[in-house]
Amino acid sequence: MGSHFELLSEQGLRLDGRRPHELRHIKCKLGVFEKPDGSAYMEQGNTKVLAAVYGPHQAKGKKTESNDVVINCQYSQATFSTAERKNRPRGDRKSLEFKMYLQQSLSAAIKSELYPRSQIDIYVEVLQADGANYAVALNAATLALIDAGICLNEFIVACTASLSKANIPLTDISHIEEVSGGPMLTVAALPNAEKIAFIEMSERFHIDHLETVIETAMAGCREIRDILEAAVKEHLLHMGSAADWARVG
Amino acid sequence: MAYVALSDAEKTFILHGVEEDFRCDGRSRRDYRPMELETGLVSNASGSARLRLANTDILVGVKTEIEVPDPLTPEFGKLEFFVDCSANATPEFEGRGGSDLAQELVLSLQNAYESPLAFDYRTLCLIPGQQCWKLYIDILILECGGNLHDAVSLAAKAALFNTKLPRVTATLLDAGITDLIISDNPYDCTRIGIDTVPLLVTVCKIGDFCLVDPSAEEEVCSTVSMVVSVSMRNGEAFLSGTHLTGGGAMHRDTMRNCLQLGLSIGEHLDTLLAKMLRQEQERVGPKRPKTVGFLK
């Protein structure tokens, strides 16, 4: 394999002290803003993302012609989010690519038959980038969609995975591991149905390992799903306690 | 600006409230809405601040770079403002939709900071004519709830206060070339003096009266407002720039009143901000209260 640094120490610990299948610390919050119909903040390690959802509303312009729901995404990254200053927050190739991928993954999760001729706007803003930006952005978008009350088939969550030199799969890749040159696989999945909505791989590894790396990423997805679900339940309990829903719990 | 739909009746209601000196949210004409201010939230930036003024949410990050000073001002460092209106604030900002508003904010900040008496550019100079600091002040607007100018300038000042420049030592090599050594100890750093850094105060004219800190609804009712930039020096408030925004016009007497109001409010605001930032700096370690906002 390539001449990348060893991602795993002899003691079996990663560069930031995690074990191979350990996720970074996740913190999330729903309903952070008032103006959008749904909003969420998500933090995975040092990657921090805000997502806002507007809609469903009447589709604008040319998009009205089709009968289907229009899912409109925008991915932008604050100019101070990376170690090196970015010149512009969006419009570069990476952002356009991520925007397309977001559209693709979210289309798989949204119950599109319920929203004919409507448009749903999903805006994602990365405040601090420290690896797995796409995965965290997608997870934040899922939470914002739930906060907006848009029907989903189920949680769509994304997770990254890599492979160390000793062929040990690693979950949730940080920026330092990304740039160390190891292979990286991003999976967006519907964990309950065990369906994969999106998969992307960079660098290379032997096909024999692909199955294990995908399984590692899926396991990460399931773990993140549980965390998100707990956050949604807590948020609803918090919001609903004012309306006496809490007892139903 | 974010679009707010108001009927004629609602506008009249706001107008009458302003006349009675009792606005919709119970404030008088000289009152500000509650603010939240936090500093040092973004670890990838040299300095950062987040300000929430009622529904207006601003995040500012300051990044630093070493550059060559302009030949015309060899002893001055450089400042560059950049405003990004995030589509999170309103769908109208999608793509390039927010660039006009962003440009307006950048220009008024540049105007206010232009005078070397308002911002001491000499402190950013490392070797005159050869090396200086360039500060990128990147402002991200996350939610619009009116009065963006004031909020942006307050957040920018707080972020400058929070900015830590690593200590730089220069050694003279052969042939007059200087070599810079930048300290890699994160605690070995210098701060920027922010005493004279200007604040913007928007004075908004509704009906026959002037008021400060207009909400998004009040901004719709006003035809013209005046942005006054106030820089404090030796306990006195100085004007470091001003401009009118909006479609209307203003009588000269009204303008004088607006300037007076802006200056006195700016002075008060500056004292409060300085006090708050001092508190923020002193509360370190376990004494530091939990952050209130969504970040962290």
TrEMBL record, chain A:
Q: Which residues form the Exoribonuclease phosphorolytic domain?
A: 22-150, 155-219
Q: Which GO terms describe its cellular component?
A: cytoplasmic exosome (RNase complex); nuclear exosome (RNase complex); nucleolus
Q: Which residues form a coiled coil?
A: none
Which InterPro entries has this protein been placed in? ExoRNase_PH_dom1 (IPR001247), ExoRNase_PH_dom2 (IPR015847), ExoRNase_PH_dom2_sf (IPR036345), PNPase/RNase_PH_dom_sf (IPR027408), Ribosomal_Su5_D2-typ_SF (IPR020568), RNase_PH (IPR050080)
* GO molecular function per UniProt: RNA binding
Q: Which GO terms describe its biological process?
A: nuclear mRNA surveillance; poly(A)-dependent snoRNA 3'-end processing; rRNA catabolic process; U4 snRNA 3'-end processing
- Assigned protein family: Belongs to the RNase PH family.
What is the protein named? Exosome complex component RRP41
Print the organism lineage: Eukaryota, Metazoa, Ecdysozoa, Arthropoda, Hexapoda
TrEMBL record, chain B:
* Entry's Gene Ontology BP terms: exonucleolytic trimming to generate mature 3'-end of 5.8S rRNA from tricistronic rRNA transcript (SSU-rRNA, 5.8S rRNA, LSU-rRNA); nuclear mRNA surveillance; nuclear polyadenylation-dependent rRNA catabolic process; rRNA catabolic process; TRAMP-dependent tRNA surveillance pathway; U1 snRNA 3'-end processing; U4 snRNA 3'-end processing; U5 snRNA 3'-end processing
The keyword Cytoplasm appears for this protein: yes
Q: What single Pfam family name could you report for this chain, choosing any that match? A: RNase_PH_C
Q: What is its main location?
A: cytoplasm
Exoribonuclease phosphorolytic domain spans which residues? 32-166, 197-264
Example of a GO cellular component annotation carried by this entry: nucleolus
Which keywords has UniProt assigned to this entry?
Cytoplasm, Exonuclease, Exosome, Hydrolase, Nuclease
GO terms assigned for molecular function:
exonuclease activity; mRNA 3'-UTR AU-rich region binding
Spell out the Gene3D superfamilies in the cross-references. GHMP Kinase, N-terminal domain
Kindly list the places in or outside the cell where this protein is found, as annotated in its UniProt entry.
Cytoplasm; Nucleus, Nucleolus
What family is this? Belongs to the RNase PH family.
Report what the protein is called.
Ribosomal RNA-processing protein 42
Query: Species name for this entry?
Result: Drosophila kikkawai
Q: Per UniProt, what is the name of the gene that codes for the protein in this document? A: Rrp42
